[in-house]
């Protein structure tokens, strides 16, 4: 699977590189929907030729750079020749053109990703490879500009392989036969070998395989949700009681695979409602963990869409659209708009009409507070 993804990645990059060589423009990716999973397809007949072209081009380019550096560092009289200077300048121009086209191509990939609001694993491989190539080109440019000869091209790539005993989420655990509810350890970041995340897995309800990312329920001592940016980034609480999994983990989960979000609610009279969003994505910290949801279903009403495309806000980082700080006003971090129709992290209040407690306005338009609320995510299978 990794070889196939890498082959596609190299092929995509080579399409734009081939256009540079023949004087064309960078190609445009076309999303193709197949069983609700976005794929990027390329003409398979080009793969063999493009891979051969890639290997030859890379080898020749590195050889040329090494030759230039050897001539410049040597005592040969030709090292000061005008032709060598011209060749070096042309080489720099070529590398700059490649870098410019690469930046354009990377932006196109990112634009397609943003339009889909989620990234497939292959997309991540494309972006990672392009970023690595960007760094390699910087190194090649430095070499061609009279860098010391001992600086050689580093063409190595870091490949992070997930170990079979490091499940990325509760859905993977479910597929492996873990069918009982409980606390499990997951590894959303396959490149971090030292950090597992304890989470509550709902393996028995609604088809199983749900990773609980937020849990609110009555306790003798409630978990404090009135916290700052770092706590919401890293996560806090106890998966067995009240818990926020952390925005960084949410980003990892939703960028590695398409996720469905389910929200289960219960009021103080033990009535229940649920909602589901077929697509749920949390952006990186650079986007302030921006929220995207789509594909509403359920019997609780679509309150969360009011918060769609909002950045995350906390008491110490105000990203909402209100003149005041909504996180301070409602004592909890969330994707506030101006301010909320969903209040999931405010204090857990007994039954009363208040915007200061846990609310879902599409269920209780008068803002009657709720007793329990759970956010949980599950990978949407590609089948």
TrEMBL record:
Q: In this protein, which residues make up the domain named Fibrinogen C-terminal?
A: 161-381
Signal among keywords: yes
Domain of life, source organism: Eukaryota
For this UniProt entry, what's an example GO CC term? extracellular space
Key words of the record: Signal
- NCBIfam families cross-referenced by the UniProt entry: GGGWT_bact
How is this protein named in the record? Ficolin 2
Say which species the protein is native to. Macrobrachium nipponense (Oriental river shrimp)
